[in-house]
């Protein structure tokens, strides 16, 4: 379905990725030790919300949530899986007190790092994280928008990725690869990178 990635930008935008950001290490014993150090030697209870609808980034949300829960239970985090109507899910996650943990995804509007960072970490975009903000990230995102130099922007977004990896307020899981298909008798269709298809020049033979 897609490729797991440790960064918020998809592989197609890896010119703006950081070489320093790697997958979080899978180490249950270390995770248990860190929980104990944080004051939770017996783990804790966690509500994990999963969407009730299939989306391109999570085509089967419940089994994916169950897999998350299984990994978390292995280190003592007792997960309760919850869901609700899609419109209520979207609205309630940004209403205090919000959700303890939840699944969400993003269908990019255009192929630029800004479109994968600003909507999730820019001003007014973290209501679902208790209005979390990092002044350095906000500064870098504004600089990235203002610059027209690709090399400079690459450095900016690499630094953003490094900061977010350390903060771990949103955890990237996978970048899905949308599938498109057409019949042999269709001509003139060029798939749009913006996700909005124009059929003005399409013909059928």
Verbal overview:
With 205 residues, this protein is of the alpha/beta class. It has six helices and seven strands; from the N terminus they run βαβαβαβαααβββ. It has helices at residues 28-37, 61-73, 86-92, 114-121, 135-146, 150-167, and strands at 2-4, 44-49, 77-82, 101-102, 174-176, 186-187, 203-204.
Question: What labels describe this entry?
Answer:
three-stranded parallel β-sheet, 7 strands, 12% strand, two-stranded antiparallel ribbon, alpha/beta, 205 residues, 6 helices
Gap between N and C termini: 32 Å
Percent helix range = 25-40%
From the spread of the alpha carbons, the general shape counts as globular
Give a count of the beta strands, DSSP E runs of length 2 or more.
7
Strand order of the largest sheet: 3-2-4
Query: What structural class results from the helix and strand content?
Result: alpha/beta
Strand content: 5-15%
